[in-house]
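Intended use. Records like the one below are meant for learning the mapping from a protein sequence to its folded structure. Do not use them to infer anything beyond what is encoded.
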Amino acid sequence: MIFVIAGCASVSRQKIREGYVQCHPNLNAKTREMILTGNIARGMTKAEVEASWGATYQKDSYSNFLGQVEIWTYGDCLYSCDVLAFDSNDKLSNISSQKHNYY
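Structure written out for the chain above:
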C-alpha cells in the first residue's frame, strides 16, 4: 500500500511540472528539461525550483553585503538535505547537499 501512495505522489509532482512548463512557454530549453526531469541548476528562479522540486518546508532569509539572501532547505538535515541559496534577484545562486552517516 505504501508503494501505491508514493507512486501517486510522484505522478502528481510530474503533472505539476508539466503544467508549469505548459503555462510558461518562454522557458529556455535547458530550464524546461530541468523542470520536467525534477532537477535544478544555478540561475533558476524560485518559481522554477518550486515547480521542479515542490514547496520546501523551511525558508530563512538574511541580509549580507550582497543584499537579501533566502535559504530553502529540502529534506531532513539530521540525515540528508539540500540547502539552496537565492540571491537578491530571486535566482538560485548556490546548492549544497549535506549527508550524514551515523554508522
